[in-house]
Amino acid sequence: MRKQYHLRPKQNGFDAWDIDKLIEASKTFPVVSVNLDDIKDLDENFWYNGENDVPSGRSIAHHVQLIHEADLSYPVILTEGNRVMDGMHRIIKALTLGHKTIDAVIFESTPPPDFIDILENDLSY
Are 105 and 31 in contact (CB under 8 A)? Predict the structure, then answer.
């Protein structure tokens, strides 16, 4: 699997969480069923590359491929407010398949980021 980070825009870059560390930190959490309608990120503007909110056809095709390959047997990782930290492609796959819920693990409080105010190109992939 490719190296991944959860990114949240900040004034001078991003706060970034290493997905491998989130998976490790949440592996003992109970898996719960979450209603897809309760996942806020599904109904908000999806951020693509910081400077351009409009995706290209090529970037859409790339995401469609990732959605197609997504494995629904792994729970998604959410924050305490049902914000997605890992698993958006799985969530979209579940939605397109007509599922009403998805398995998730939920942090009671958002863990501190692994990187603060970092540029995406400065992360090691």
Answer: yes
H helix or E strand, kind and range, residue 66: helix 57-69
Tell me which H or E stretch contains 62.
helix 57-69
Rounded to two decimals, what is the model's pTM? 0.87
Task: Please give the pLDDT value at position 125.
Answer: 79
> For the chain, which domains are there?
5-117 (3.90.1530)
Reported as a single tens digit per residue, the pLDDT across 43-90 is 886 554 555 567 788 888 988 999 999 999 999 999 998 999 999 999
Q: What is the distance between the alpha carbons of residues 17 and 5, in angstroms, rounded to a whole number?
A: 5
Q: How many residues does the chain have?
A: 125
Under DSSP, the state recorded for 43 is G
